[in-house]
Design goal:
The chain is of the alpha/beta class and about 450 residues long. The strands form 4 sheets. A 7-stranded mixed β-sheet has the order 4-10-9-8-7-5-6, sandwiched between helices. Strand 2 and strand 3 form a beta hairpin. The longest helix is centred in the C-terminal third of the chain and has 23 residues. It is globular.
């Protein structure tokens, strides 16, 4: 059964659309939600950029968006992003800004903070980080000194760049050791985490992943961190939206600091969020500003407040649970098509799959799916020398799709991957689904 998570979402009938760029901009039926107030001016003054925006809107609506880190924000969030708050410079925090005229943006930030605290049961929230990576690096800056030992999921096992990559400042400033997942089950190897913690005595333990499809046992991580006197930092960028909707365990009661993005399943603007215990509030705030960032992006903070408000609704709770149901249905369908799923399935929106059983590598698979207008990622596979596919169900659930559509999507992916019809049959099926479930139906 499909769940419509917001009044603007749901099934409707539409014809297949093809992307329009500059040449077709003038013929487009109109701007998408959140753009209306200034889009006519943009179209007049810069038709080249206007055409690109319209073309991207068509691209998003004409195919299946299965990138696990993406979603469709609401028209209200888009409106806040395009508001006059984008004009306001606001270094500092509410009541202590370095610029005048901040009375109203102070209120917006306080509302965002209060809503985030209430939504996640946190003692303190900082809504200024420009991204999830900025939030994680600020947490490190608040709690660690250069050279401190840190334990985090190894990148090849599913860790993020900010979890110690040599190409990232985290791997250059701190001494990371990586833990992993069990080679047989694909689940976090908690015995290994404990052994490494005892051996390296890290200043902080980081848990979180870009590709782990199961729930993390935060209580076990807390126990291990306490045993070695380490801070527990949870990178909840992927599950935080499910947490908001009560569809995943909440890390806040266990972590010293929780870092997250405000997009993905949470369905807000692209940005970051830090939740922490009140005893760390001043250190976290100073690490965000002035240590690692300058002025806050007040239009984005207002959009975060809107998203937090939406996430506190009964409709969002239904949405979050449907995301999980859809993830499980899509996983089952992909397994039936012959893909090998990491951990054998999912508890979340996220699915990691190996296409080797179909005789393909991940890049070839992604190209075949792109030809059918299915967009997704590749990612490393734990304990394997090849890459796999990473998929997510957040965006298609926002469009109003349910388990039946997930089964159909799995069939279409199987058809495209096998390549028997060079993708034409799969592309037609994708177009039919996209037409029935547009992301912004009132504006199609």
């Amino acid at each position: 059964m499909s769940v419509t998570p917001a009044p603007t979402r749901g099934a409707s009938t539409a014809t297949e659309r093809t992307p329009r760029v500059t040449a077709g901009a003038a013929a487009h039926p109109g701007p998408h939600p959140g753009w209306e107030s200034g889009f006519g001016e943009l179209l007049h003054r810069d038709p080249e950029i206007a055409g690109l925006l319209l073309g991207e809107a068509d691209r998003q609506s004409a195919g299946l968006q299965l990138i696990a880190a993406e979603n469709f924000t609401s028209p209200a969030v888009l409106a806040a992003l395009g508001s006059p708050l984008a004009n306001k410079y606001a270094e500092g925090y509410p009541g202590a800004r370095h610029h005048g005229g901040c009375e109203l943006v102070d209120l917006a930030e306080r509302i965002a903070v209060d809503r985030a605290k209430a939504l996640f049961g946190a003692e303190h929230a900082n809504v200024q980080p420009h991204s999830g990576s900025a939030a994680v690096l600020a947490a490190y800056a608040a709690l660690l000194r250069p050279g401190d030992p840190v334990l985090a999921m190894a990148l090849r096992q599913g860790g993020h760049l900010t979890h110690g990559s040599a190409a990232n400042i985290s791997g250059r400033w701190y001494d990371f050791t990586g833990y992993g997942v069990d080679a047989r089950t694909g689940l976090v190897d908690y015995a290994q985490v404990r052994a490494l913690a005892r051996a390296h005595r890290p200043r902080a333990i980081v848990c979180g992943s870009i590709s782990y499809p199961r729930h993390i046992d935060y209580a076990r991580f807390r126990e291990i961190a306490d045993e070695v006197g380490a801070y527990l930092i949870v990178d909840a960028a992927h599950p935080i939206g499910l947490v908001a909707g009560g569809a995943a365990p909440n890390p806040v009661p266990y972590a010293d600091v929780v870092c997250a993005t405000t997009h993905k399943v949470l369905r807000g603007p692209r940005g970051g969020l830090i939740l922490c215990r009140v005893r760390l509030a001043e250190r976290i705030d100073r690490a965000v500003y002035p240590l690692t960032q300058g002025g806050a992006q007040m239009h984005t903070i207002a959009a975060k407040a809107v998203a937090f408000g939406e996430a506190a609704t009964v409709a969002f709770t239904a949405y979050a649970h449907q995301v999980v149901a859809n993830g499980r249905a899509l996983a089952a369908g992909l397994a039936a098509e012959g893909l090998d799923l990491a951990t054998g399935g999912t508890d979340t929106h996220l699915i990691t799959a190996d296409v080797a059983p179909l005789g393909l590598d991940a890049l070839t698979a992604r190209a075949r799916l792109a030809a059918a207008r299915v967009v997704l990622d590749t990612c490393g596979l734990a304990h394997a020398p090849v890459r796999g596919l990473r998929l997510g169900t957040a965006a298609v659930t926002t469009q109003g799709m349910g388990e039946a559509e997930m089964t159909r999507i799995a069939e279409l992916l199987g058809t495209a991957l096998r390549g028997g019809d060079t993708g034409h049959m799969a592309r037609a099926g994708v177009a039919e689904l996209a037409g029935r479930f547009p992301p912004y139906p009132a504006h199609m």
